[in-house]
Each structure stands twice: as structure tokens, then as C-alpha cells.
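Researcher: Next entry in the queue.
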Amino acid sequence: MDRIDTTAFAPPDLMSGGTSMTPVPITTAAMARAHVRAVVLEQWNSPSRRATETAVIDLLLVVSELAANAVRHGGGLVGVEATPTPEGVRLAVHDNSDVVPAAAFGSGGLPPVHLGNGYGWPLIIRLARDITIERRPEGGKTISVLVPLQTMP
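Model: Structure for this entry, 153 residues:
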């Protein structure tokens, strides 16, 4: 069974008052970043709170690393979800591999020597909270993280 269903749910069309979620194909890290930025701008930001640009950059770095890892090590990017929370944005990235990355629950320390392991997981660990990895019933896994967003004063 081919599990390449690269869909995420885009924010509802707020201008028209829509409430349904529209599937949008997400096949690259760039598309995942654009989707998550739209969620912040259209759903998380409000008249009473606005994420700092630094916080959004950190969030997009985490999105890039998770999506790139799914493509490079996870057998392909299957889907990306971004859910606004009071603290920030919860990301869920789905891939086709059942393998749990060894570095996922590390200290967040940078590798002293680059021996095939990159800086992605240490950055994710430093910028995100509540990291969970769950195997999906249809195969593959979902990596979920909460990325806090600081607000402008």
C-alpha cells in the first residue's frame, strides 16, 4: 500500500467566515513552512497577541528540520499538521518509517564532530517542548512537538 498522502489541513478561509478545513498537499519543507506561517498569521495572531518574528523564525526552523528529516530519513513526508494552542503551535509531522530517531530524546547538545548526524535534532530539542513519537496504525510514525511562541509587548 502506498502511504504517500501528503495532506495537511489549511486554515479556514477567515475572510469568507468559513469553518471547514480544506486539504492541501504538502510535499516539501518549503510548503510545510508556508502552511505553518499561514496558521500563525491567520489563526494564532489576534488583535490582542502577535508572535514575534524571532518566535516565528524558530517555529519555521523546527518545521524545516522535521519535514527534511521525514524526507531524508523517514521514507517520505506523509503529512503536516499545525494546531494553534495558547502557548504556541503544536506540529505533527507524519512519515513512512517506523524507526524512532536515536537522537530524538537526547540532551540537545550539538555533536562534537559531524559523523553523519546533523544539527537538526539538537535544534528541535532546544526550540520545542513536549516531543512525542507515535507509530501510526497504517505504518510510519508521527512526530509531534509544541513550539512556544513569544508575543510582542
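Model: The mean pLDDT is 82.
Researcher: Noted, moving on.
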